[in-house]
Description:
globular
Amino acid sequence: MCGIIGIFNDSRAKEKAKxxxxxxxxxxxxxxxxxxxxxxxxxxxxxxxVGFVSQPIKGNGWLSSNCEIxxxxxxxxxxxxxxxxDSHLLIQLLxxxxxxxxxxxxxxxxxxxxxxxxxxxxxxxARDLLGIKPVWYSWNSESFYFASEKKALEKIGCLDIQELNxxxxxxxxxxxxxxxxxEREFFRxxxxxxxxxxxPKIMQELAKLLEQSVSKRLPQKKVGILFSGGIDSSLIAFLxxxxxxxxxxxxxxxxxxxxxxPEDLAASExxxxxxxxxxxxxxxTLAQVEKYLKTVVx
Length: 298
């Protein structure tokens, strides 16, 4: 999780960029940088998962991104690019391909992303089709602003704040002070299945897809799994263990006289025992929930 912000055509861009980055500093503590040009600013809070590459990244233009591109190594090899990580691959790919083909370029990316690319007084702003990585923006007749979180825009007084439609790529022309959009197609599911498969074959294929899905989302470093003992978290933990990953499961439970004992606590303990995995349990009171919420949702 990283944080991205941008300000364009605002004489107070430098001052406002600092305010915006401060509002989303929780999104990345590995680095915080901003580039300035005239009345424009592009900023980034880094949470490094794959290779340390400081952002915004300089190429022909500038890139500020929040992405987890699972197939970045495959794309780097396919396009013969000397990429250091997924964000580095992204700017190289955008600049190798024509920006007129940006819709085709982002279609190659496997994984959630949100990015801003700034070149020759124009900004391209995009996010993954499912909208996993957030982007909010606000603009008026004079200026344009965007950020990973709505509150960053609220902090500088933006009023008409909108969430970027994941099916749109936004283009802001700073010279004309105009916004336009490129529409993207959503996923299409073919329901006209002609070839029937046996149940064992379907189960085998599903198991393969689930394992691949978990594998590509797990970084090489130690990770934690939020664990309830339900189907989803138990399946993820089972597959992570099968893949030989180093992880610990975490469960929290509210223990308060006003409530009956939480079912998830017993379920998580039982599931962890059956799966033979490490689990850490945090028992908290209702008063602590209220206290922690102020940190989790500032």
